[in-house]
Amino acid sequence: MHELRVVLAPNALRTRVLATTHGESGTETILKAHLLAEPSHPRAMQWLLEAIALWQGQTVRAALVADGTHRSCGSSLYGDWFSDFGGALYTLDVVDPRERRAHRDRIDAMGSFADLRQLVLFRRREGR
Questions:
Q1: Which residue from 72, 8, 62, 83 is spatially nearest to 38, judged by alpha carbons?
Q2: What is the value of pTM for the model shown?
Q3: Tens digits of pLDDT across the chain (128 residues)
Q4: Residue 3: partners with Cβ closer than 8 Å, 6 or more residues away
Q5: Which residues make Cβ contacts (< 8 Å) with residue 33, sequence separation at least 6?
Q6: Predicted pLDDT at 98
Q7: How many degrees, rounded to 5, is the angle at CA 51 between CA 49 and CA 53?
Q8: Is the domain defined by 3-100 classed in CATH 3.30.420?
Q9: Cα dist. 53→57, 64, 74, 91, 96 in Å?
């Protein structure tokens, strides 16, 4: 079974959008976009997520990156960007990238192994 994920990351200059599918065979990027910093319609984000879900034929699991550092970040636009946190076609989580847990590596030799640590995190989120 594949999972369709979309990340929306607004900043002062633009909003970046990344859509990926995640399944047994790995991860595939299906959409990348740079959009205006703020949508010109209050339901634009909702309709974008619904359009991706309809195009791909499956529910979208979306994340809005909202770190609060810019006026146009997701945390200041909640009311303007969407009327809810999902529906039949998508779910939406608001995430703060500053809430990442710090990792201490007690073994300095042999490099960082960040790529392997990232794999473990993805597997943990998928419930494996």
A1: 72
A2: 0.70
A3: 689 999 998 989 999 999 999 888 888 889 999 999 988 888 899 999 999 999 999 999 998 887 665 544 444 444 444 555 677 899 988 887 766 555 555 556 666 666 666 555 554 455 54
A4: 21, 22, 23, 61, 126
A5: 16, 17
A6: 65
A7: 70
A8: yes
A9: 6, 16, 21, 11, 24
What residue spans define the domains of the chain? 3-100
- How far is Cα 98 from Cα 86, in angstroms, rounded to an integer? 24
Q: Is the dihedral of CA 16, 59, 61, 119 positive or negative?
A: negative
Assigned token pair, 89: 């076609």
d(CA 11, CA 14): 6
